[in-house]
Amino acid sequence: MDQYKIVPAGTRDAVPYVNPDGGRATHEIDTFAALKRRRVLIALLVLVATALAFLATRLMTPLYEAEAGIMFNARELTPMGAAVQQSTLLPSEETARKNEIAIIRSRGLAEAVVERLGLDRVAEFNPTLRPPTGLRAFIDDARATLTTWMEPALAFVPSAETQQAAEDLSPERVRDEIINRFLSRVETTSSDASRVIGIRFLSEDRERAALVANMIADQFMIQKRDEEVRAAETLAHNLTAEIAKLNRDIHESERTFEDMRLRLGIEPDSNTRSLSERMSELNRQLIAATAERLRAEAQFAEAKQVRESGDITVAAQVLSSSLIQRLQETAAAASARVQQLSVRYAESHPRLIEARTELRDIRGRIAEEMAKIQTARLNAVAIGRANEEGLRRQIEALKDQMTRVNASEVDSRVAEREMEAKRTLLPQLTARLNNANAQIDYLKLHGADVNVISRAVVPRKVTHPPVAAIVATAFILSTAIGAILAVILERADHSIQSLTQLRHMTPLRVLGTLPTVRFRRWRRAKPADEVLEERDSLFLEHLRSIALRAGVAGPNPAKVLLITSSVSNEGKSSLASSMARMLALSGRRTIVVDADLRAPTMHRVFNLQRGPGLAEFLTEDRPLQDVIQHDVSSGTDVLAAGQSLAAPGDVLQSARMQELIGDLVVQYDTVIIDSPPVLAVCDAHILARLADRTIMLARWRSTRATTLMTALHRLSDDRVPVDGLVLSQVDGRKYKLYGDADADIFSRGFRKYYVR
Questions:
Q1: Per-residue model confidence as pLDDT tens digits over 73-96
Q2: 70 Cβ contact partners less than 8 Å away, ≥ 6 residues apart
Q3: Is the N or C terminus of the chain more exposed, i.e. has fewer CB atoms within 10 Å?
Q4: Rounded Cα gap, residues 691 and 687, in angstroms
Q5: Is 693 helix (H, G, I), strand (E, B) or coil?
Q6: In this structure, which long-range contacts are made by residues 399-406, counting pairs with CB atoms below 8 Å and at least 24 apart in sequence?
Q7: For 460-510, what is each residue's pLDDT tens digit?
């Protein structure tokens, strides 16, 4: 739609007034821009925090700092005299340094310094001697006043208070408080690459600070010397007892060793060798006996097999007997003779019978001989087994004997080694005892290996509290907190902040911005008065741009202009009155109609009467000339709201209201209607259908994006036409800080075009 083309209200099509991606209405956060926008908040927070930090340093008790330096030697005595501790490593440099610092900050050393210097009689450390001052006095006075007020109620529990007061003032509690305050003033410094320890003490008195620092160093050296002397004496005593015990153990071990050797009766080394040689010989004999037994068993098995088979030919070969071989030859000859005679003679012939008898006798002798051989071989097997078993028994007995001898030998060797170890340890312990005695003499004569390398001097100026450091820390922390708070506030700010944001929210035409009016003579000027006083101001130029883009000028200008907003206090009345005066001053016949019958403001802007006005005209049939008032300064006619009505909506949508707008269009060049907010009542929906153009206002950094979107949704749902949006009450100097693309409209370079 052409922005200069007038479309009657009845023919305009209502379009969706909110983009589908309405979520883009949430503006992106630029951290640097957010810090610039919230610089006043950050500066105020930094100023308050820095001032409070400085005030806190003024309330603190000023303290002087004195420092003494000592250097230690990382040498420590071995606390016990056991042999296993000869290889104990000395502590590392860091461990030794921590040990020395722990001694310096110990309660024992603090009590010794307090006792020597009589600090328990100084009000700085003794709470019972110090009257409250400063903030402490204020707190005590407030507590006393509160106690006085509550005295009737506290009268029921006097014993508890008395007991608590007595406990707070007990000598033990006072002593502990003195030591705690003393230790809170002691500080130590050290470097990882040095054995030097700095002892710093803070005091309200400069001379006392140096005195206490030097006394801590001196007392530390005394306590270190006494501690090392006690450690050396303890070591010497332990070593003496250890040497005496070791001598007794050596004598006892010698007697035990000799008794063991006498009980064995032989030298352990020779006894072991003879038993080993005998064991080797018996093993060789056992192997030979086993082989002989196996051979005899094999021969016996062969003889048994031959005898059972009955083969005489094989028997002679297997048994290897010459007698059997001869008998076999004789038996063969006798068998051949029996064969020959059996051919020649009958079975009963005497010679044949004789030959067979001879053959039978020969075979009987062979059998007898074979039985003898088998019996001999069986005896050989039994003998072999007996020999083997006897050798095995001898070997087992020898093994038992060797086990007993070895056990006795191990015990004797262990006893001998223990005795030798104790003999070796004895001179070492003696040397350590001599060294411990020498250390005792050295410590008593020269003291501990700690030197005071620098004595504390009386400080010239107060060192605590560190005002610069505290204030700088407060400044840095408050700046960081302020920056974080600024970003959080920016993220929590969901108001409309730029024209770009409006264009993301809705496809409706954005007509421009209306700058805020600056203060004049310690009061804020009215925008309508700005039109009268400044002919070429920034406000007036932006107002002309809005009027031009709204279509009130040109060959076919809009006659009726409705101005509304989402909620109240967004500047719609200011825009209506300012535009009316501007157009009237330019020579156009202009009238302003205050249609906000519930909360009218136009009569106050022009310093006119509230009534009679629009309400009386619509309800009482007053003549139009009786209800129109005139602004002398600009020539603008004003139709005020008049008296409040019970149902303004019914009156505004009456036929007389339509006739009124028709008459005004005939009599005036421009009719500007100031309507109520959209979300408050539905009057704007009624009036928009009587206007040629409807302008919607959103206040810069005040109107929430969701509020404007809700109003536009409502107008779109009711098909109420909206022709443009205006971002009102914009602070040009702050607007540039948001870094939007249209921020150049408030550029300093444009100031030459405006006359202030």
A1: 755 444 444 433 444 456 677 888
A2: 196, 197, 199, 217, 220, 221, 450, 451, 452, 453
A3: C
A4: 7
A5: strand
A6: 399/279, 401/275, 402/272, 402/275, 402/276, 402/279, 405/264, 405/268, 405/271, 405/272, 405/275, 406/272
A7: 888 888 888 888 888 898 888 888 887 787 777 777 877 888 888 888 888
Q: What is the pLDDT of residue 671?
A: 92
Position 263 pLDDT exceeds 50 = yes
Structural tokens at position 300: 């016996």
Whether pLDDT at 753 is above 80: no
Quickly list DSSP for 198-238.
Answer: EEEEEESSHHHHHHHHHHHHHHHHHHHHHHHHHHHHHHHHH
Mean pLDDT of 356-360: 80
Residue 724's CB is within 10 A of a number of other CB atoms, namely 19
> Is-contact 565 674, C-beta < 8 A?
no
Q: Is the peptide bond before 268 cis (omega within 30 degrees of 0)?
A: no
CA atoms within 13 A on the CB side of 178: 25
Query: Collapsing DSSP states into helix, strand and coil, what is residue 546?
Result: helix
- Beta carbons of 550 and 1 less than 8 angstroms apart: no
The tokens of 727 are what?
Answer: 């971002």
Q: Please say whether the beta carbons of 34 and 739 come within 8 A.
A: no
Query: Given this model, what pLDDT does residue 156 score?
Result: 41
| Cα–Cα distance measured from residue 684 to residue 649, given in angstroms and rounded to the nearest whole number | 9
Closest CA to 272 of 405, 396, 395: 405
Pairwise CA distance, residues 447 & 225, whole Å: 5
Q: What is the pLDDT of residue 519?
A: 52
The CA distance from 9 to 559, in Å, is: 12
Measured in degrees and rounded to the nearest 5, phi and psi for residue 608 equal: -120, 180
Beta pairing class for 693-699 and 560-565: parallel
Confidence (pLDDT) at 77: 41
CA distance 267 to 272: 9
Tokens encoding 162: 């008395």
Dihedral sign for Cα atoms in the order 666, 672, 678, 681: negative
Structure-token match 């033990």, residue found? 172
Amino acid at site 59: L
Q: What is the pLDDT of residue 71?
A: 86
Beta partners for 726?
512, 697
Integer CA distances (angstroms), 514 to 58, 394, 593, in order: 50, 128, 21
Number of H helices, E strands in the chain: 26, 14
Q: What is the pLDDT at residue 317?
A: 47
